[in-house]
Amino acid sequence: MDNGAVRSGFAEADPKGSAAIEVAQLTKLYKTIRAVDDVSFRIARGSITGLLGGNGAGKTTTIAMIMGLVLPTSGRIRVLDCAIPEESARVLGRMNFESPYVDMPMRLTVRQNLTIFGKLYAVKNLPARIAQLADDLDLGEFLDRPNGKLSAGQKTRVALAKALINHPELLLLDEPTASLDPDTADWVRQHLQDYRKENGATILLASHNMLEVERLCDRVIIMKRGRIEDDDSPDKIMARYNRATLEEVFLDVARGRVQETAK
């Protein structure tokens, strides 16, 4: 695929400044390994974008750089019109992150954990916000239970509550439904869709669950070996590869069959 438009940096940026994320020529080196290699993309406000790729494709490193947690070797990042990491302090309160692989303190109760994160984000009327999240995400029965005594599904709902505590304009998700049963995973997806619709939020979603991406995402960015392999809507990508599902496309890309299938 010709990624000329994707790799053109900020030249394609909306003059009204409507992009939630703008990334240009982003590169991250770990000694001689290029974890992220000259990646550029622009994500419109209010959209849900899937970031796909196998293990080691560069998805998590890209998200970490967008959050300002990892410094890029080169390239530029703007989040909600602020340069990252230079202006991170101006924007961190307007974004949040969720991953089932990042545990909250196990000995603290759910309420205590949410209180701490709420204070970090300077959330106003924090007890009321926690009560609202407990109601929305069905946390009431274990709100005062230690986090370490929760099931995987309960921990995921708590992690989502933490990610939503500050009403983020931008939500970054890394495998948000990993290890969940189908019912709980479906519940999480529906809540994310509702949150985006009700708040006009932007969501960047890294996932290995192709059905999840097909359901949630307006756009898919496929990464391989630190570079962008393809970037389009799910339907257009599946049509271009002549495949019925994103999972089949994913396998083509992972196994190097791109030149045989992509038009």
Automatic annotation (TrEMBL):
InterPro entries: AAA+_ATPase (IPR003593), ABC_transporter-like_ATP-bd (IPR003439), ABC_transporter-like_CS (IPR017871), ABC_transporter_ATP-binding (IPR050763), P-loop_NTPase (IPR027417). Belongs to the ABC transporter superfamily. Keywords: ATP-binding, Nodulation, Nucleotide-binding, Transport. One of its GO terms (molecular function) is ATP binding. It comes from Bradyrhizobium lablabi. Gene3D superfamilies: P-loop containing nucleotide triphosphate hydrolases. Involved in beta-(1-->2)glucan export. Transmembrane domains (TMD) form a pore in the inner membrane and the ATP-binding domain (NBD) is responsible for energy generation. It holds the Pfam family ABC_tran. It comes from the Bacteria. This is ABC-2 type transport system ATP-binding protein. PROSITE patterns: ABC_TRANSPORTER_1, ABC_TRANSPORTER_2. Residues 21-250 form the ABC transporter domain.
